[in-house]
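Model it.
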Amino acid sequence: MSRINRAPVKDGDTIAAADLNSRFTDFTQTDLNAFNTRDAAIDLPQFKRTSQRGFLAPVATDKEIGEVSLKHTTSVTLNGQTSAPASPYVIGNAAGAASQLGPFGIGLVNITADDVLRVYWNLNVKPKFTGTPWTTADTPSAKYVLPKSGGGVGLDTCTWGSCWVIYLQWDITSASLSNFTEVPFQGDFRTSITGGVTGDPLQATAATSVVPCFISHRSATDRVAIGNETAVQPGWRSVSGSYYYDASMAGTVGTVYGFRLVAKGPMHPYHNGTTNYLVHQTAIPGQNGTDVQLEHTDGRLGFILQRLG
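Modeled.
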């Protein structure tokens, strides 16, 4: 686009017809052609160029996902998973139909060496709990014991680490969308770490959104925690996420046929002395898994494929 270089008006400057006329002349566009009135009005690098490269944003689309319910009169409830490794919940509607972005035609979303894929999503969620699930002792534990001054039994307090994860999968096999798998740099939280602890290192959570399971607190007087721990239901909120894949650095993929979101939980941070993980926390839910739940309604899932010019 054109750029006008002219010093700004300052206090004390006089106003004269000649000066005003010259300023208006700066903004005069005499050749009202397609470039100046159409192409230059938008972000040119994202659209058609005169070289052989063609369009630099060849594909961009999005879709509503989940259970569409503006007032949350209907929703989908996910129960806490009581075993690990566990298959994820697929984000969909209340009738059980999975929300999938696709299928795309063969070659329509083709990630080559010069391409960058950007995926964005959001989802309305409401984490719920029953009882005091943060007092469950396990490895990893949702509770931390606050030591008392002078000894004695410490006070159990929540780590605030328990969470649900929502992460991205794609199908790069066929338009039947029956072969979804995690996108590169995103794990499935099935890696066995130690002593029955299953999850993935944080380096393998590139396409993950996190939803806290609960928010709790204790009262305190003169630096001493007193009373029972109190928790609040977080309520409805929107969680969002994004994913970025640079084929020039990570390698070509070929055709992508579709995307979807999946969820697991509860999860918890874990450190084995060398690496930070996000792992399944199977001891929190009750026997039927309803001590910790996640409700969700609708959201959107979309992507844009860009070429490096």
